[in-house]
Write a structure and sequence with these properties.
The chain is mostly helical. It has 5 helices and no strands. The chain has one domain. The longest helix is centred in the middle third of the chain and has 37 residues. The structure holds protoporphyrin IX containing FE.
């Protein structure tokens, strides 16, 4: 892919993300003003949809990095992985994380006044997940510049971390054990 095609596709991804966020903001405002009393479950539904999208990307991206490590630098396969990784990160993972945080924090404030051991532990686990998100974004940048030095085994191990955090987060919010 040429530099110009690269810039165009990044511009298009940014445009789609902006349109998506504006549509969601309008929908949220309509739901809030049309039925303020039932807004909490609506906000929870949007939060869960965003969580599903974020997690789908967080579980798939390290798997792509495993395959990418095995592809020869400069090969067609390697260049294809670069496009897949960039689109997954910018088109799905980044916006989904923002929506998850915005609605999650609103639910935590409105429903629980930010109180509860389970909630504090959950926010801690989500901060770790967000740090992992940052680490993966950095890795996508390195792979894009053919500067990855980590082994496929490293990315296989990294692949397990979002899974473990997801299990802990879901148990904390559903079971609320403390
Ligand atoms: C970004 C920080 C986050 C905050 C502050 C947050 C906070 C919350 C709050 C307060 C609720 C409502 C709980 C209730 O009404 O009982 C909720 C629901 C939920 N959250 Fe999050 N959340 C965040 C991120 C996540 C993530 C990353 C996941 C999954 C990996 C997740 C999974 C869920 C699920 C499954 C529910 C529905 C639970 C139920 O209704 O029983 N959340 N979240």
């Amino acid at each position: 892919m040429t530099e110009t095609q690269n810039t165009n596709s990044t511009g298009q991804a940014m445009m789609r993300m902006t349109i998506g966020i504006v549509v969601l903001a309008v929908l949220t405002a309509v739901l809030y003003f049309a039925a303020p009393d039932s807004f909490y479950p609506w906000a929870k539904a949007i939060h869960i949809l965003a969580v599903i999208s974020w997690m789908a990307g967080m579980l798939y991206l390290p798997r792509l990095l495993v395959y990418h490590t095995d592809a020869e630098k400069g090969s067609v396969q390697s260049e294809t992985f670069k496009v897949m990784e960039r689109r997954l990160l910018r088109g799905i993972i980044n916006p989904a994380m923002i929506v998850t945080w915005v609605f999650g924090l609103w639910l935590a404030w409105k429903g629980f006044g930010f109180q509860g051991g389970w909630l504090h532990a959950k926010i801690g686990a989500v901060l770790l997940l967000s740090a992992m998100h940052g680490y993966l974004a950095g890795a996508v940048r390195k792979f894009a510049e053919d500067r990855n030095e980590k082994s496929a085994k490293h990315w296989r191990i990294v692949n397990e971390i979002p899974t473990l955090l997801m299990i802990a987060i879901v148990i904390l919010v559903v079971v609320k054990p403390f």
